[in-house]
Amino acid sequence: RVGIDSVVVEASKAFERSPRGLGIWPSGQQVLRQLGLQERLAQMSKFNPPASYRDGKGVWLSSPTPQTAASVRVMTLERDDLVEALAADTDIRWNDTLVALGKGDGQGSVLCQLQSNDRIEVDLVVGADGLHSSVSSFLRQYGGEQMHDHIHLKEMTGITNSGGKIVEWCVSGYVEWRNAGGLLDYPFETLAHGSRFAVVPLRKKELQDQALDRAFWFATVKDCEMLRATLTEEGMEKTKCDVSVESGKKIGDAILRKFSDQDNWHSPIPAIAKMALESGGNYVERRLSSSQVPCVARQSHVPGTYSEILGLIGDAAHPMPHNLAQGATLALEEAWLLALALHEENRLAGHACGPRSNPWLRLDEQRARRIRNCSIVSAFTHNLAHPPFAATLLAWLRDKLLAMVPQPLNGMVFDAFLKFSLGGSQYCIPGLRAPTSSSVVQNDIQHSST
Fold first, then answer.
1. Is the confidence at residue 146, as pLDDT, over 60?
2. Coil, strand or helix: which one is 378?
């Protein structure tokens, strides 16, 4: 869209669908509009208000104001629908990985050696390969002392650094339910018993005789008796880094059994947990804590080439927890902002009006506050769900205090935290604007000052 040629190297053998959901906030929707994909994906999506908080009995604890619920809509869809749309006109090298970097023939270029023995000469290497990024290893290899050791932490919570100790376990999945009777109509996050369970509706599937309700969900557990028993049985300590598929399945089942208790959890949580147990399709992701926000190395040196050629975006740079549902939105924002930075760099180079700018520095300046705000809000909600001490008493006080706050004030506080995490009054980040060009689709949404 801005005249930057690219090639994607993807380790997967081919595109295969597997049901998972994600949410796209308004700023991410703006990027999709710039790419010409918003209208198409909207037909596959459900637009939800921000998720409200509930207690274990189903009492609503905190919700957005009616104005925010009506104006701020999260586009929820299957992850594979988004990936398929983005991949439609993209040069993708399937079943391949980056194995080495070297000096290219062109001025400032880098030569990428692939596992298939192919070589690609490029000007920029972007690691957008998610939570378990392999590209980040090149930052360590070439970044020298400037690299931060916390780049590989798998969670961005802002909680006190625990030196790799597991602070919570997470299991997530997808559910289809014939005639759920309205139980999957509204997004919510339930906080109770030192744990949390969230449900986010997807667009219904219309069948011949009835509608099929769909949703994606996640659950987090800090600690529980069944989980401790499973960890002991598997011979796993809390600081163990690797979880096998078999152990992960047992841990996931132990978590889901906790949420299947109808005496402690309101509907539809027990039913969803039981369906997930029966399907066997859940997975576990380990969550670590960091006192700092993982960041891209601003100058990742490759001998003989520019120092700005290598960096990370999205979860590869700053892994996001489930509860804010902002990982996909941040990845879209950063990809678009990086493209604009490169477009500006090319413009400056073409007009010979001074030294070339570092696109990674420009990107860092634009995304730093957004990531920091997400880190703070994520830490706050983590501690709401998992009180750090006297858990039972603090959870009881939390629920009582939230229930006592009158809704106008309750909603205003909710809106303030939401606005803070999204980065501005217009729920978009500075710079999310296409350059003036006949080849670029112009944005028709009003922005805050850039």
1. no
2. helix
Residue 35, CA distances (Å) to 7, 114, 427 in order: 17, 28, 19
Q: What pLDDT does residue 234 have?
A: 67
Asked if pLDDT for residue 165 goes beyond 70, the answer is: no
CA atoms within a 13 Å half-sphere pointing along the CA-CB vector of 448: 10
The whole-number pLDDT of residue 307 equals 47
Strand intervals (E) in 260-314: 283-287, 310-312
Cα distance between residue 380 and residue 315, in whole Å: 20
Written as six digits, the tokens of 221 are 């557990």
Element (H, E) at 216: strand 211-221
Dig out the tokens for 210 from the structure. 């009835």
Percent of the chain with pLDDT over 90: 32
Alpha-carbon distance of 197 to 421, in angstroms, equals: 21
Q: What is the structure's pLDDT at 304? A: 33
* Beta strands per DSSP E along 115-183: 119-122, 125-127, 168-178
Q: How many CB atoms lie within 10 A of CB 355?
A: 7
Separate counts of helices (H) and strands (E) for the chain:
12, 17
